[in-house]
Amino acid sequence: MPMRYFDLADDVYLPKRWELGHPLGANGHPLEDPWQFRVGARAQLTDRIQLPVKTSGTPLDFSHAAFSIPVVHVRVASLLAEMAPHDVDIIPAGIQGQPDQFCILNATRLVQCIDDKASGEVRYWRPEDGRPEKTGQYRAVYQMRIDPSKVGDAKIFRTWGWTIALIVSEEIKKALERIEATGTKFKQV
């Protein structure tokens, strides 16, 4: 049976949940490049990161800060670092008013595996869109499906060309369910 993979997302419909804001550097200013956590590569950081709480509520084991940056409780970070050490950077991050430790989960693998034909709809940037630097790249991917034969040994990764998606193996999904990690939502891809 082929390996199954899932898009791991923040369950934004949980009631009374917190919402995290724009990551800040040690100087209290917004990070210059918050997108670096969404490109499937190691982050280039020199400062400890602070995450403000934008909306107070129940802290979650998995949630997104601004820019869809994955933030995990240290128990989730430890589990993922143990199960997929070559796939993630675990970056400590302080959260205002939180005694527990949290981390940014940075997927460091980028895998070219989107199955355009099996996906619901795939759109590409075209010359007439007026963004020549993006021509030929994904503009939108709906009901994404991947080709598992192209994933190799990756257990946590971003999809090449559509790095919005954070993909985990079924093994990772089951481990997160086993520890009852809050805030997670999975959709098979």
UniProtKB/TrEMBL annotation:
Source superkingdom:
Bacteria
Where in this chain does the record put each Immunity MXAN-0049 protein domain? 6-189
The protein's name in its UniProt record: Immunity MXAN-0049 protein domain-containing protein
Species annotation: Stigmatella erecta
